[in-house]
Amino acid sequence: MIRHVEVRSIREGVYILWYLGYTDLASLYASGSERELLRFNGAINRLIEQILTKNDQSEIVLNFIKNQEMYRKYRVDETIASWFSQDEKSSVFFWLYLLKKFRDQQLVDEILSLAGNSYHDKKIVHDKNNSKVIVNELPIRTPDNPKKCFMAGLYILDLLRFSPDKLQRTLDEIKIDYSHIRDLRRKDFAWFTDAGPEDVKWVWKQFNGHPNLLNKIKKWDLSESLLSQAIPLLYYLWDEREDTKALYLNTLRKRYANMKHRKKVADKAPVNIRISENAKKTLVKLEKRFNRNRADVIEYLIEKTWAELNQKN
């Protein structure tokens, strides 16, 4: 009886372990480089040896080989998805798009119909509210950088076992959607470009407070390091009418501006002044010229005048 197995890549080993139900070991190595392949093969064989020794389940090797053959038949050639790895935001979108779609009932059912009994026993949770099946374990559960997002997306495609035609259609859909929102994002989220860590958390809190914007996404443990890139993309993945989305985004932008203003003036003292009509008109012109609000212009002029007086003295 065969007792020793070998995988050719990290992805192959992760795929096989996932379908056999050993998702924890799969996740442990899913983010690793091919330099860890030797160690990964060792861990796989130790697992098999433990199973054979404890339970004498000789079918574990046969199931392993069966899933290995399936992987080599359906594996996704990384080069055909390489377009998404050339840009950080496209890598994040690639993963989010697939993850959102993966949660849809149709694709979940497709994966579960192919999964082994051990996986069914361990890794399925039934949602009592809508009787939908939710898969909680993915090879890369919380990617923390765009490169890992790309790999996480590849793992999802591996697990779906799409035909070549369906795989290409799916990749084309993602590419078209991303190309469409790429320019929109620059315009719609120009106010978010220079957001600091606390500002990003504030916007993320607003997203989480919406009853259906994130839907199941709020159940995912999204890494804070990806929030600034993911927030605009999640907005475009929101399945809602365009006018409703536009109204929400406009309201959010105004609330964000107010929040930033409150933080900016929190430690400043109020000053009440009355000026002539001509001075007010000049002040308005200065606001437009400097592209600053009134308080900033007045503060700038005071500091500038004081600095000039000090230089003269």
From TrEMBL:
Name the record gives this protein: Uncharacterized protein
Protein source organism: Trabulsiella odontotermitis
